[in-house]
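The passage that follows is intended for readers who have already worked through the single-chain material. We present the inputs for a multi-component assembly, then the predicted structure in tokenized form, and finally a short commentary. You are encouraged to pause after the input and sketch how you expect the pieces to fit together before reading on.
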Amino acid sequence: MSGAAPVTIEDVRTAQARIEGKIRRTPVLRSSTVDELFGARFFFKCENFQRAGVFKSRGAFNSVYSLSDAEARYGVVTSSSGNHAAAISLAARTRGVRAYIAMPKIALKSKIAAVQRYGGEIAWVDAVGEVPTTEEYDATVARVQAEKRASLVHPYNDRRTIAGQGTCALEFLEECSDLHFILAPVGGGGLLSGTAVAANASPRGIRVIGCEPLMADDAQRSLRAGHIVPQLAPRTIADGLRTSLGDLTFAIISKGVEDIVTVTEESIVEAMRLAWSVLKIVIEPSSAVPLAALLERRIPIEGKNVGVIVSGGNVDLDRLPWSQAAT
Amino acid sequence: MSGAAPVTIEDVRTAQARIEGKIRRTPVLRSSTVDELFGARFFFKCENFQRAGVFKSRGAFNSVYSLSDAEARYGVVTSSSGNHAAAISLAARTRGVRAYIAMPKIALKSKIAAVQRYGGEIAWVDAVGEVPTTEEYDATVARVQAEKRASLVHPYNDRRTIAGQGTCALEFLEECSDLHFILAPVGGGGLLSGTAVAANASPRGIRVIGCEPLMADDAQRSLRAGHIVPQLAPRTIADGLRTSLGDLTFAIISKGVEDIVTVTEESIVEAMRLAWSVLKIVIEPSSAVPLAALLERRIPIEGKNVGVIVSGGNVDLDRLPWSQAAT
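Having made your guess, compare it with the prediction:
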């Protein structure tokens, strides 16, 4: 990789113009209960209200609409067990092109249904074990690329994806210009990278903090080691955060993020429940991770203005973590 | 009651100015999934994000801040088993006065906790049966009024309350000026009355529809009979809509509401689940009643712009209606 910044604020601004009117400008919610609980002023940017229920629509629309007409006619392909799959399917349908999604057979029923609702065509990943390996995913994607001539859109390690995800923080800062912190979850690092690019372009010195499950703490370990330490067999409830950083996201996060904090599984469930009961929003476990970091008092935010990116709201209402014991 | 309009648009505008900055300007959410499902354009005014999680904070703040300083020093009293109690407690705490709440011992734990969190002082209603009668509630309120010289704020049959609730539709129409319909739930009728006053003041001929459970259909029966037909032993899951119209709300609704439609309990649960899964918002059963009317195709909204007031989001996360069978 070259020494130049892989994604710039101009890329994010271009993405914002490209996807305007196609994605949703999401609201920022407040809660005096949360403010009192943690002794700071909180602003929740609610990407659970984004199209397809997740911030990933930003990167997906930017990527799909970045293709030339010649490229677009063959469609797009990606591998994802979750939200990126649905977002790419929706973006492709909106542009009127095909989307091929390499999915594992163990993907959540609700996420398979979302892909199908948006017209995505599923290519099941052949896997020896229950969970496909990266190589098995890649083989399926390569097969679809060869057969269909479709363009690959990586879920996070892709400049177009990262620039698209950065539009969330750009919008956030347009509405809330005096944030001291922005907290975002980190899995593959697309959202956190885009957030860092947008926040670092502000002259105000906004501190960007990545939040991840202790059970999938590859970002924290990678930053400390100074090179990518891939995650082995993550078992966190935060299913959107099981992936490891890529070379692009590692480079951006290394430079632009102040810290990565980790949280326990118990805190994630407690935080998710707090969001549902106090903020009155349906959020998925991955989205609760920054709030979990607050519950664990991992970040010195007292008295500050704290922006929290609530990444998505796609959950199975029949399998809520706090009712597992009862069922 | 005199023939003059009991509440005017001027009262609503005065209320709006009085409570501005004390209550929250709630966001309006969209959903292409819901639009496609019902073949119209929907706008959801999310009062579940209102302070205390419910639209009732509007009426409560207007009522509490309408008191003179001389009145306010003795505090306020009301009877409520639910959201009005929490809203009055919060408004009183904000003004720095006392709130006395006559509550039944069978009130939901979560609603008792909300009153206590906001500093309301509970006066338990002595009841012979499990559910107190209106007379038993009134006796408790009268005792507190006599002992404490507190001012009574009725949960719905009160001009200040109705004017406050009307600020929701006023705000809604400021943001969405081209609505053809506004749908709101109806219990005691405070929200629906305020909505009618605000919507009827628009020159655009907005059609206001009240939605209520078939198991608590006193508003529909009252409007058809031309006089108040009180509800006897309502057993609906929509616990906020078990009350009957009062003389003020009956008079306003009779003139200003086009129709009252009723829905089944099954539709309410289905609609509540739809809101959670598609809109990603936590709403209580009462708030799902307008969406239930859409599921039952009770209102001819095809191709129109439809405003839906989502009244509140206070639920017990351990007792969700779709998981009752499993526990």
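Commentary: The radius of gyration of chain A is 18 Å. Residues 159-175 of chain A form the longest helix (17 residues). How closely did your sketch match?
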